Amino acid sequence: MKQQIAIVMLILLSASVTAAPVRYELRVDGLACPYCAYGIEKKIKALKGVDKDSLDIQLNDGLVVFVADTKPAYSKEKLKTLVNDAGFTLRGISTFDDPKTLQK
Amino acid sequence: MHPRKLQLCGSLLLATGIAALISPAYAHDPVFGIGPHVLFKDGVELKLGAHVEKSDRRETEYEFEFKYGITGDWVAGASVGYDRSTGKGPSDSGRAATTLSTKYRFWRNDQFAAQESAALFGKVILDDADTPRNRVNEPDGNDYILGLAYGYEGRKWYRWASVRHRFNADTRANTERPDVWLVDIVGGIRFFPTGYYEPDWVWMLELNGEIVDSANPLINGNRLRLGGDSWFLSPGLMWTYRNIAIKTGVQLPVYDTLAGDQEPDDYRAVLELEWHL
Known about the structure:
heterodimer; A: alpha+beta; Alpha-Beta Plaits; 3 helices; 4 strands; about 40% helix; B: mainly beta; Porin; twelve-stranded antiparallel β-barrel; two-stranded antiparallel sheet; 2 helices
């Protein structure tokens, strides 16, 4: 019985871990003007599971940051296509499982 | 024909060709010239514009333009407008020519906080304007513009260069409307590198050249001399806040070699409001 409870607890725990929000940091080349960057804002906000308030476009650092709660996480290929459709080039991507431990 | 009337005929003949030239800009492009800017995929741009051209007449055109981003590098659009002309001679007003345009960005070099690109531009000015002036000098077919644009955008500095050629149809009376070359060299600066959620200002200075092929059409038995170069210096400003832009500029003549008795422009002015959706 104890073993069964432990297994159920583990399953619940792992489920909550995989569903945790992921913080995405996209290094985007070509970001020069805010008016042109609106395409990125629109496309990222249209993604499923994105916390719209988390989106931050840091023009001076060439960074686009957002948090999304999806399973599985968005692939690099999908984000590369998204950025290209917005008129820019994705140079790199970093993801973090626990956004609260990172500085925005 | 009285020389004044002949001069008026000449300027009207050319004015029908120039009105649609001063609103080709897309997004973060120069005000009077063109740049390589397009629109994001599935994006929509709505634009309201007012263009004034003052010479011996004052021509005002109000325009509504719709554009759609087919891909991240290819945009197409259409515009409709209303044209009003006052001054020497009878005033007239009516529907301006409908235009269809497209731009394809064939080269893009994205760098950290900068974008350098080049694009091909095409525009058709349909033969559907309906003003008394247009009925007198009615083109017998559509006019076409083909262009090539280069641009560099950084967080601080901007530069653009473009060349366009306008193929003008002759009038129904077989009066020649000469073709026009347009050359633009533009510099821009953003004095303060504002953040994404802040209002943004870019100041521009354009050098715009219009090189009109020479022509000597016969109007009412009188031979008219058309053609020559006009060069303009054009300070401009683009204010944006996220997906809203206001663009304005004034085009001031600095040099011309106009043939015959053609009246040079005093100035041209543009005010445009753009909205990206």
